[in-house]
C-alpha cells in the first residue's frame, strides 16, 4: 500500500510542476539557474517582477497541496495517530519526493525534454550535473529530517 501511496505522491508532485508551467517553460523560469534567467531578461522574453509573482503563486500552491496530501495520506488513509509513526512515514514520503525531484524531474524530464529549452538560451547549461544533484539532494535530505518532524507534529496536533 505504501508503494502505491509513494507513486501517487510523486505523480502529484509532477502534476503540480506541469500545471505550474503549463505549455511554456518560461512560466517556470524560477527553476532555472541564474545565467539562464539573466539571459531571458536580457532577451526581453519576460521580466523579474512577472517571474517573482509566478514563483510566489506556484510555491504557495505547491507547498499547500503537497503538505495537505502528505497529511491526508498519513492521517486519513493510513490512520496514523501518534508522533513516531507519523514522523517515520512523513520522512519516507519527503525523502522519496526529494530524490524523485532530483533524479526523475531534474535529470530525466528536464534533462531529456526539448520542452525545457528556452529559445535563445540553448548555449547555457540548465540541467543539474550529477554532482550538483547529489549535493543538493543530500542537503535536502538533512532538511527533511526536520520537515518530517513538523509534518508529524501537525498530524498529531490537528487530529
How would you describe what is shown here?
- The model has no long low-confidence stretch (mean pLDDT 97).
- This protein is an all-alpha fold and 159 residues long.
- The chain is elongated, with a radius of gyration of 17 Å.
- The chain has one domain (2-158).
- Helix 1 packs antiparallel against helix 3 (48-77) and helix 4 (83-112) packs antiparallel against helix 5.
- The chain has five helices and no strands.
- Profile the largest sheet: none
- Tell me the radius of gyration: 17 Å
Give me the count of strands: 0
SSE succession: HHHHH
Given helix and strand content, the structural type is mainly alpha
Q: Report the span from N to C terminus.
A: 22 Å
**Quaternary structure:** single chain
What is the overall number of helices? Answer: 5
Residues in helix, %? over 70%
The overall number of domains is 1
The best one-word shape is elongated
Average pLDDT metric: 97
Poorly predicted segments: none
Fraction of residues in β-strands: under 5%
Amino acid at each position: 500500500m505504501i508503494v502505491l501511496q509513494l507513486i501517487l505522491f510523486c505523480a502529484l508532485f509532477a502534476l503540480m510542476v506541469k500545471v505550474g508551467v503549463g505549455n511554456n517553460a518560461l512560466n517556470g523560469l524560477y527553476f532555472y539557474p541564474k545565467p539562464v534567467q539573466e539571459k531571458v531578461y536580457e532577451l526581453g522574453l519576460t521580466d523579474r517582477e512577472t517571474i517573482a509573482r509566478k514563483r510566489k503563486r506556484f510555491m504557495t500552491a505547491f507547498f499547500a497541496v503537497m503538505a495537505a496530501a502528505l497529511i491526508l495520506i498519513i492521517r486519513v488513509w493510513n490512520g496514523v495517530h501518534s508522533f513516531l509513526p507519523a514522523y517515520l512515514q512523513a520522512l519516507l514520503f519527503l525523502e522519496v519526493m526529494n530524490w524523485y525531484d532530483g533524479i526523475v524531474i531534474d535529470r530525466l524530464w528536464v534533462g531529456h525534454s526539448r520542452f525545457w529549452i528556452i529559445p535563445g538560451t540553448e548555449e547555457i547549461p540548465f540541467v543539474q550535473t550529477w554532482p550538483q544533484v547529489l549535493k543538493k539532494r543530500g542537503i535536502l535530505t538533512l532538511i527533511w529530517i526536520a520537515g518530517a518532524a513538523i509534518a508529524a507534529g501537525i498530524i498529531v496536533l490537528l487530529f
